[in-house]
Write a structure and sequence with these properties.
Helices cover 29% and strands 44% of the residues. By secondary structure, the chain is an alpha+beta fold. Strands 1-2-3-4-5-6-7-8 form an eight-stranded antiparallel barrel. Strand 3 and strand 4 form a beta hairpin.
């Protein structure tokens, strides 16, 4: 009985001691793992960031997305990416596809891009269109017939100039913000609609 009791106490001591050691080890490893994780995810400049992180998900406002949209971005190379997404406007939906070419930089990457978008209504429409958000859609792109019927499908192409900020290291590494100028062109009527967009993308 005494042997069993002594053995139990010995095992308890080993287990508790091991637990403390494990706790310390976990704590030490926690710091090391976090540091190594941040270090592994860190990048020295913008193009290295895009080379390490291939897929991005984000939100954007205005521009080719209408009022608000969500997008997926794929980095095919450190300086080339393809962005695709869907959005919403006042009474219509949007789809956009954009190819981006980045210029080397550290925290900020200038870029040029070209894209195509479709802005369209679904169903029979909700009556005549008096105004839209954004306003240039009704003023520049829609015909009198489209306004009266409340239905339209506009094919747009657009060049863009933009600037992207990238968080290269630290806890928020992977986050990016961008602002760009877009020149939307109605393919059917060759009417121009200058606009701009802001967006946030997180890259994995």
């Amino acid at each position: 009985m005494k042997r069993i009791l002594c053995l139990s106490l010995l095992l308890s001591g080993v287990v508790s001691g091991g637990s403390v050691g494990a706790a310390v080890l976990v704590e030490d490893n926690g710091v090391a793992v976090n540091q190594s994780t941040y270090s592994a995810a860190a990048a020295s400049d913008g193009l290295e960031f895009r080379r390490k992180r291939k897929v991005g998900l984000g939100l954007a406002g205005a521009g080719p997305w209408g009022v608000m949209g969500t997008h997926l971005e794929l980095n095919f190379a450190s300086d080339i990416s393809l962005q695709a997404g869907v959005g919403l406007g006042s009474g219509f939906q949007t789809f956009a596809l954009q190819l981006r070419k980045f210029i080397p930089g550290k925290w900020f990457l200038p870029y040029i891009s070209a894209g195509v978008a479709r802005w369209y209504t679904t169903g029979e429409g909700d009556g005549a269109i008096d105004g839209t958000t954004p306003g240039f859609l009704a003023k520049r792109f829609l015909s009198g017939k489209e306004k009266r019927e409340g239905r339209f499908s506009e094919l747009l192409v657009f060049p863009s100039l933009g600037m992207q900020y990238l968080q290269l290291s630290g806890e928020w590494a992977g986050s990016t913000l961008y602002a760009e100028f877009n020149l939307l062109v109605d393919v059917e009527d060759f009417v121009l609609g200058p606009t701009g967009s802001l967006g946030y993308t997180y890259f994995f």
